[in-house]
Amino acid sequence: MSSIRGFWAVVPAGGAGTRLWPLSRAGRPKFLLDLTGSGRTLLQATCDRLEPLAGERILVVTGARHAAAVADQVPSLGPGRVLAEPTPRDSMAAIAWAAAVVEAHERDAIIGSFAADHVIPDEEAFAAAVREAVSVAHEDRLVTIGIEPTYPATGFGYLQMGRPLAGHATARAVRQFVEKPDAARATAYLSTGEFRWNAGMFVVRARVLLDLLALWHPDLAAGARRIAADPDQLDTLWPQLERIAIDHAVAEPAADAGRVAVVPGGFTWDDIGDFTSLAQLIDPEPAAQPVVLGDRDLVTAVQASGLVVPGSGRAVALVGVEDIVVVDTPDAVLITTRDRAQDVKAVVDALKAAGRTDLV
Amino acid sequence: MSSIRGFWAVVPAGGAGTRLWPLSRAGRPKFLLDLTGSGRTLLQATCDRLEPLAGERILVVTGARHAAAVADQVPSLGPGRVLAEPTPRDSMAAIAWAAAVVEAHERDAIIGSFAADHVIPDEEAFAAAVREAVSVAHEDRLVTIGIEPTYPATGFGYLQMGRPLAGHATARAVRQFVEKPDAARATAYLSTGEFRWNAGMFVVRARVLLDLLALWHPDLAAGARRIAADPDQLDTLWPQLERIAIDHAVAEPAADAGRVAVVPGGFTWDDIGDFTSLAQLIDPEPAAQPVVLGDRDLVTAVQASGLVVPGSGRAVALVGVEDIVVVDTPDAVLITTRDRAQDVKAVVDALKAAGRTDLV
User: Fold this and answer.
1) To the nearest whole angstrom, how far is the Cα of A293 from the nearest Cα of chain B?
2) A271 vs A142: CA distance, rounded Å
3) Of the residues A20, A62, B255, B343, which has the fewest C-beta atoms closer than 10 A?
């Protein structure tokens, strides 16, 4: 199947991934890592997944310090296809800049924004959802792809689906976006069957996104368009852009205005938020032996379970530890449990406080 | 106080210490390590403790592969004071050889045998016990120093004390030696107040030891004396010596014959059998933070307790793990718990089975 005419993929590549320390570091964030053992980094796998849909029309927006690594990992990105942010300005500025660049190239183009560090094993189902989302975006709606919840997650935002949209296979209106719920509320959401995880995937005509943004954050929309028109002004204009997430800047107010649609994604999705989800992703079945990401021969386990990442070439030996997480790297080793994996960020904070910025 | 006239210290330096892997290795056993953070290895601390009692009359008996390291660590040992065993033949052969060497030097000398890998913080109390033991040994008894049990250990042998010996401050007869008991029996032993841990410390006239040995194992006694008389025959005679522990060869039958005395040691003692006892030794008070053997600055602990040995220069980070044991070395890292520390030997067995003899 050929790529979608007039469709551009935008890949925001940011986020430190501090809950995946010491694998991820400020200088080597999650999206630059092969976290699944597939031989491709998350960024590469994301571009692999988008290439059949967007052809060579892929833009990666990333921090200036990572631009060279991005170009190195994805050599098929042509000149001008890596947008290097001088400083982090949150997701709306990044996507608005890319949208403005696309709009300047091709006034009616549709963009789809997909984070560089998500995992979607079923590429066909993903492609089908994007293709339907593009067809809905032609009606000048902001379209999101909503992930069917597999458990009452408290770590993701949700969206509530409304009426089906005529003329489309599965698309529906979006009634509202909701913030990360507590466990009781998440369970209630799942019981209704009306809620989907908000994975931050947005498909929309570039011009429509910027015009919607202009309704609520006119300076941000105008700034992005000025930078696209005159890249020499990037360093001057960029620091003035408002720091705001795309959900708050556009998705939520647009939903309230009845302008948002959702295509329910018929695929599993993971943002690998911590080592527990990484272990689950590598081996979904709980096992008596630890899951190993890397060279199995380096791990000796005696009555142990959990996740081991032998990342320094050294032997890792476990005796009588259950649901343990051990991540071994050349300059740091982390020991935690699957239950406490979400608290790994506290180590990064402690190391920063102790002045060990070389390790974070 | 000057050293004890006619007293020689014998230091058997053997034992792999596999339960302390990966700190201890076949090529770098426990006695060559500084396990207490004192700046002295266990062997060095043992010799430091004995030098005030024996002066320069210290003999170390060790495996041939460790003889150079022993001489290097204890340069005060003169020529001929390191006895290098061609192969391991258990404790009786080692001590009998040393006894025969001493006997050949000085026919009436008394030896005291003290393992190279035990920890005795109170050197004065130790010295007082040895001095009393030497005075009892002048009566041609086999004298042991019995450690007052601090808990109903199942990992040590015990001895049962009998009547006080006239003319000595604390010495008593020994009724019997008993093997490592189960927990119920160990508790019963403690309740009587008559039992002491057998720490393998024996003080005895060299000639008396060999004569006692000759009663039950004449070939072993004769072989040791022949090697002492003609060291050139070591490689020929050594492999013919019986493999047996001193407890079974001499201490138990001599106790049955009423020839054994005990001086109750008024000092704490530890053989650092595993990482749990190492943690206890370094920090006897249970703490909310992990005990660290090494550079505390390398350890970041968030809601964690246990023992950390940061031994490679790398950072070690813990999150939400209790009573954990982490031992980090340049080529291997071990993760276990205080409860399971005695099972670390299983890792060494597994590594051998996997052909990783470079790591054991």
Assistant:
1) 16
2) 22
3) B343
